[in-house]
Amino acid sequence: MFTTIVVPLDDTPDSLRALKPARVIADATGAELIAATVVAKLAERIPLEQELKARISDYGVSVSKVIAYFNVYAVNDGLSHFLEQSEDTLVVAATFGHSHTAGIVGSHTEKMIHEWPDLPIVLVGPRVDIDNYKLEGPIMACVDPTSESEAVAEPVARLAQDLLLDPWVVTVMEPATVGASNRPVAGGIEPVFESNRVHVIANRIQALGTSTVNWEVLHDKHPAKSLAQFARSLDASLIAVATRPRGGLSRLTRGSVAMETVTQAPCPVLAVHADPKS
Predict the structure, then answer these.
(1) Which end of the chain is more exposed for a tag (fewer CB within 10 A), N or C?
(2) Residue ranges per structural domain of the chain
């Protein structure tokens, strides 16, 4: 179970959006909630901490600590040493990019995912209703045919147990057509490799200690929209996706699909770093 939840903050009001979902997760796990930022001048450290405490208090969230780390470069660099020394830590960060124009790729968020590969990072997108966020629905593991997507299995199983959430394994494929690699299933035609990957990951999550794992294969040309709609229909508490190193993201979460998923998701998205050699 996570013992520490860290919310990276900057000087923008939008960064505070991560605090309320982080508070909900902290209450469910008993974790210590820490708000952290970086200051470029050592003399500004204490005043900045006091300013952040006031902003957080006005936002209506209680935290255990507010810490400003001295670093002349960036938030990620300033927090890296602290996070590298922390075990059982979950990072919860707000992201508010717009699909096709800004967001995860090229931002501090992507840098966090790739520079802190051993830390699970929960991204709170702009469509999350932070004032009414609850951990009552399932956790949804999004997968694709690549082996990298199996990286979601362990953190999803862990969070399902820690937060008492039912896990779902979901993939999105193009609307099916009949072909040699396809097989008939209830409601249509399903490529064998798509359903096999879902079954493999569902079985792995169940083997890690969860009682029942549900699964679904969605058919849509727009993966992000389909995932967001399905998450909304489940009233999902979390969506989990696997990310790869700087060479790119998996098919399900690559490029604009990644940005659109976080942008459209009605709940926070857990980004899990995947080893491309796994």
Answers:
(1) C
(2) 4-94, 132-273
